[in-house]
Amino acid sequence: MDGRPLDPGRAIELPYRRNRLELRFAALSYREPAIIRYRARIRPEEQWSAATSQPSFRFVDLAAGRYQVEVQASLDGAHWSETHRPVSVRVLLPWWRTGWFFLACALFAATALTIAYRIRVGQLVRLERQRTRIAMDLHDAIGSGLGSIRILAGLAERASTPEGTRAQISSRIARVADELAQSLGDIVGSLRPGSATLESLGAQLVARATPLLVGREIEFAVEPKEPWPDARLSLAVRRHVFLIGAEALHNAARHAEARRVVLALDRDGRRWRLKVEDDGKGMAAMAHLPRPRGLGLESIARRAAEIGANARWSPREGGGTVFTLTFDGLAEDRRTQGGSASHERATGAPGPEVTHSPPEEVSR
């Protein structure tokens, strides 16, 4: 094979393709050796080759499989000798037809299907989480407002309600409707393609704060002045951080009696730090102010806990308040992951512990 001698008494193995096998043999004759003719075949079911006087045969590029090479000799071309020892030849399969290759393909296909299945399940889970998040946001932002409108409208319909009270009720309904429209716009804006970035979050916070502060003749500054980094955020973080920042800006505008408010963002290691700073009267002076249920400190602490963020209030040097929120931009909402917040609502068991600053720092 390929110029190397082989033992014809043992099975011969040839590589697939590029194989060259040469068989040389001799037939004894006591008459005239020159008239001896030879023929060969590679399988019993194959046809014999044409008779030749050359005592050798060559086989090139045999296909994969098993062969039994037989050789016969004849003096007259009619009577042929018998083959007592066929030469066994086996041409190996190509690598892409071997058992290990099919096994590897099967394992690869199973792995690919498993990965595709997990990716699809992950997409469906994320979609379901997003739907749950939207439903919760709509319930939190719209449900209570619609309930208030329904109650106020019922009071306005009563014949016993004085006209002056009706006017107040109508004004209150208009304010609640404006707040609902703003909340709905915030929810829709947070779901738009490309909105889950730090830059989009900053733009929406600035858009929310500008009319709120400028309308009260409060100087409003954003740091840094350049556009915020275009870092990616999860939808949960984008939604909660926006609502927390909007509430902090609302507090500074409505209750702090500030002359200047600063909205800032910077890095804190691998996390981000959002800061709202005002030069108002400070937290201690506002401790007596009433807080609507579900808003203010309680709402901020709850939302911060749901994305694993840390919210902190501290006095500002020279007077005023500094609110700081440190968060991971890619965190997920624990409520939509079957976390402890959902467990608390369903079973009454305590959820994750939220660490607050000292009382004098969170009286606001």
Quick gist of this model?
The chain is α+β, with helices and mostly antiparallel strands. The chain contains seven helices and eleven strands.
Describe the structure.
The protein is α+β, with helices and mostly antiparallel strands and 364 residues long. It folds into 3 domains: 12-93, Immunoglobulin-like; 98-191, no CATH class; 193-364, Heat Shock Protein 90 (2-Layer Sandwich). Helices cover 40% and strands 19% of the residues. It contains 7 helices and 11 strands. It has helices spanning 99-157, 163-190, 198-214, 235-254, 296-306, 340-347, 359-362, and strands at residues 12-14, 20-24, 37-41, 56-60, 65-74, 87-91, 219-223, 260-268, 271-278, 310-315, 321-327. The chain has a 5-stranded mixed beta sheet. The chain has a 4-stranded mixed beta sheet with strand order 1-6-5-3, with no helix packed on it. β7, α4 (235-254) and β8 form a beta-alpha-beta unit.
